[in-house]
Amino acid sequence: MAKENMHQSLEVFYEKVNDCPLRDRQFNFFEFVYVISGTGNHAVNGNNFWYSAGDLFLITPNDCHAFDLENTCEFMVIRFGESYIREYQWKSIDHIECLLYYASHIPGSVLVNNDDRKMVDLVIQNLQQAIKNQSIYNEDLIRHFVNAIIVIAARNMAVIQPKFITLNADSRILQILDYIQEHISHPEFLKISVISEKFGLSPSYLGSYFRKQCNESIQQYISSYRIRLIEHRLRFSDKRVHEIGDEFGFADESHINKFFKRHKGLSLKAYRVGNK
Fold first, then answer.
1. pLDDT per residue over 146-172, tens digit each?
2. What is the DSSP string of 95-143?
3. Segment 174-207, tens digit of pLDDT
4. What's the distance, CA 15 to chain centroid?
């Protein structure tokens, strides 16, 4: 399978096409594709999603994707590497790299909030004008528009849902997931007794309710989410093991290593070496 590489931190371009110019390619960068007009199917890693105007797709490194166009389509394409994410200080959204990296977990368009869809549409319109205009400070303006789209997309992806969450999951389970993610660095807030009291449920009912909605136990979800973030720190930061342990509330370096090895089968150091 062909690899598509990117040699600068940011690329933004508009295209109007009748056929997908690149098929069955894997990228070494992130790519936002916004559908300005047209319809068709978007295939990502063997899964197919219908698309229409206003949809925003995020393809992460090593995803394989292609568009099957039903008619002439207009796209705005934004490509950026991991270095671009690190350049900007994302003060208001924690774990933004992790959110973007695991975006392929989210089916279809990343925009689930109608107000955000309208906002992105306006940003895209302004981005189109900025691309056409070659005046002074144009590059800075384009970066501001791109950063706005990244933040809006990340906001829509903020609740990383369990893989097997039921399609008709109710709003309370999403609130519980949001609470877990907000307090993932504070184990004292993630005790079953504390969560059940927060949401007005008995501890026994919370356990059965969570499993029914998500097809896994609440303890499994908390552990898997914590593992995801630890993997992110190992891959994208220079933090030492004891610093990562402190961040996620582990007593010491030995404690976090035992936790990680129990779930991943290798030490944090071995994982970091193998994923650099």
1. 999 998 888 777 655 666 666 666 778
2. THHHHHHTGGGS-S-S---HHHHHHHHHHHHHHHHHHH---TTHHHHHH
3. 889 888 888 888 999 999 999 999 999 999 999 9
4. 25
Q: Which amino acid is it at 130?
A: A
CA atoms within 13 A on the CB side of 72: 2
d(CA 55, CA 34): 6
Q: What's at 74, amino acid-wise?
A: E
| Residue 1: per-residue pLDDT | 46
For the CA atoms of 93, 95, 98, 100, what is the dihedral angle to 10 degrees?
10
Residue 106's identity, in one-letter code, is I
Q: Where are the alpha helices (DSSP H) in the chain?
A: 82-87, 96-101, 114-132, 138-156, 171-182, 192-198, 203-214, 218-236, 241-247, 253-264, 268-274
